[in-house]
Amino acid sequence: MRTAGRPEPSDTGSPSENISVDVVIVGAGPTGLYAAYYAGFRGLSVAIVDSLPESGGQITAMYPEKQIFDVAGFPAVLGRDLVSALVEQAKQADPIYLLGCKATTLDERDDKLVVGIEDGPDVHAGAMLITAGIGEFTPRPLPAGNEWLGNGLVHFVPQLDKHRGQDVVVVGGGDSAFDWVIALHPIAASVTLVHRRARFRAAQAIVRQASDLGVRMMTDAEVTALRGDGKLAEVEVTTKQGDREVLPAQTVVAALGFTADLGPIESWGFHVDHRQITVDTTMATTRDRIYAAGDVAGYPGKVKLISTGFGEAATAINNIAVLLNPDAHLFPGHSSNME
Ligand SMILES: Cc1cc2nc3c(=O)[nH]c(=O)nc-3n(C[C@H](O)[C@H](O)[C@H](O)COP(=O)(O)OP(=O)(O)OC[C@H]3O[C@@H](n4cnc5c(N)ncnc54)[C@H](O)[C@@H]3O)c2cc1C
Q1: Full-model pTM
Q2: What ranges do the domains of the chain cover?
Q3: Helix, strand or coil for residue 24?
Q4: Is 103 annotated as a binding residue?
Q5: Ligand 1 centroid to residue 265 C-alpha, Å
Q6: How many CB atoms lie within 10 A of CB 148?
Q7: CA–CA separation, 236 and 227 (whole Å)
Q8: Taking the domain 141-256, which CATH number applies?
Q9: Annotated binding-site residue? 47
């Protein structure tokens, strides 16, 4: 387990100790992050668990460098900037972040829900909000050299600046591969794209953009070895014809796509239909004290979008506030009156 704790130093004790909060949120994508803010707005303590080492869900994993045009109030916002703003906003709730932590089990003890984390602490909570999106992402592995993972081999690039001045090899032919190529090109010493087919899956416009930048693209070619003396230094690329070339590389980005799976969550005792958790108009699942919001929540007419998740998060947390304190009002009051 990699516990990031809070993005800033936590004073709540070691993450190896069990944690007790009013609400536990499973999933630190945009919906979970906004829900964390909202829990604070309702005076609830909150822990937020994600199996990825960074918050931001699909945005961070798949399109941090893309502009998003349909988030209310932002004519255009870079994925990465939206996530930063959500994290900043959530700070008001002082959430306990458990990043790099997969939620695996759910029990009930002493009138609390108990979420078990793989190799981590239990989280005890009065209520749970599941914002697990399309599930836990598992990156498709690079067949050659997977043992370099975390030591030069990465699946996504949360901080571009770490690769300034490096030789980078990006593997893949989809939109994400090209996004990384275009984002890294201005700061890296060199960027080479390696793709095992002759044609790319990515949109023509970004392929053209990369080509206009002069990025070297090796097609019908595969990375067949990663080498270095403790530190990644070079990759071997082999073409379909069997020609071999060695390229310098301190980073290899394997952008080969992800598989997503709800995994253990599906067996937590609520109704799941086509990988979506059935909810009612309060975002309650069919199991007491468990709510769902965002992509993972399903009901007739559901539209899976960031803005939908924000509204659902507010509905879920306001209903949780009343569940935990029946004297509380469902309507929270207007945040603009709260200064
Ligand atoms: C390429 C691309 C472009 C997109 N563009 C847009 C756009 O322009 N506008 C728009 O509105 N939407 C867009 N979307 C969709 C948008 O990203 C999703 O609707 C949004 O991310 C859903 O947010 P979420 O928080 O519900 O779930 P997610 O973002 O999927 O986050 C869920 C989180 O839960 C975590 N998780 C799952 N299971 C567990 C577990 N057992 N334990 C711990 N953690 C777990 C995952 O690791 C993940 O981080 C796009 C999606 C893609 C892939």
Answers
A1: 0.84
A2: 19-137+259-337, 141-256
A3: strand
A4: yes
A5: 16
A6: 20
A7: 8
A8: 3.50.50.60
A9: no
